[in-house]
Amino acid sequence: MSDNAPHLEGTLLARAADYAASRPHLLSWVLARYGEINGLSEEEVREMLGCDRDTYNHLRLCGRPDPDPAEFAIDVQRVAEKLGVDAGLLAKIVREVDAHAAFTQGNRGTAASPFSSTRGMLKAARDREGSHGDGAEESQEGSTPETAEGDDPSGVPEG
After folding, report:
1. By CB neighbour count within 10 A (0-12 exposed, 13-18 middle, 19+ buried), where does 146 fall?
2. What is the distance between the alpha carbons of residues 26 and 46, in angstroms, rounded to a whole number?
3. Which carries the bigger pLDDT value, residue 156 or residue 31?
4. For 124, how many CA atoms within 13 A lie in the half-sphere containing its CB?
5. Residues 3-17: tens digit of each pLDDT
6. Rounded to 5, what percent of the chain is helix, strand, coil?
7. Nearest to residue 10, comparing CAs of 47, 46, 57, 65?
8. pLDDT recorded at residue 99
9. Running DSSP on this structure, what letter comes out for residue 26?
10. Is the pLDDT reported for residue 91 higher than 90?
């Protein structure tokens, strides 16, 4: 074998990992999104994980952990042990990317907070503030606590 073999192998591995970044079922996609979300370069994410470039590229080519909680922990642990990265940190990265995707996909085309249309959640917060443990809440005649006169049912101030 030539002296260039390790360099060539590293280059091919990096190209494969770069290509994998367009595949959401691989960790390459997850790590790329994590970097975007947090304004981190690939090198900064790699350093955070404490691995060299080749190990990082092997990690990027691994399949994304199963979202089922029981399987997720096992998948993360296997990858972490095989590549020598922190399982807790890897799990945190995957979960943060998943949460970010859920919030951004749920709000496409709206400028509202993700909870602005969750009426029950907002009503519960208002009800809790209004009652001071005595159980006697005043409400206006003919209206419910969540739609009292002048009260916006969405919980979002007008303006």
Report:
1. middle
2. 16
3. 31
4. 5
5. 655 666 778 888 888
6. 60, 0, 40
7. 57
8. 94
9. B
10. yes
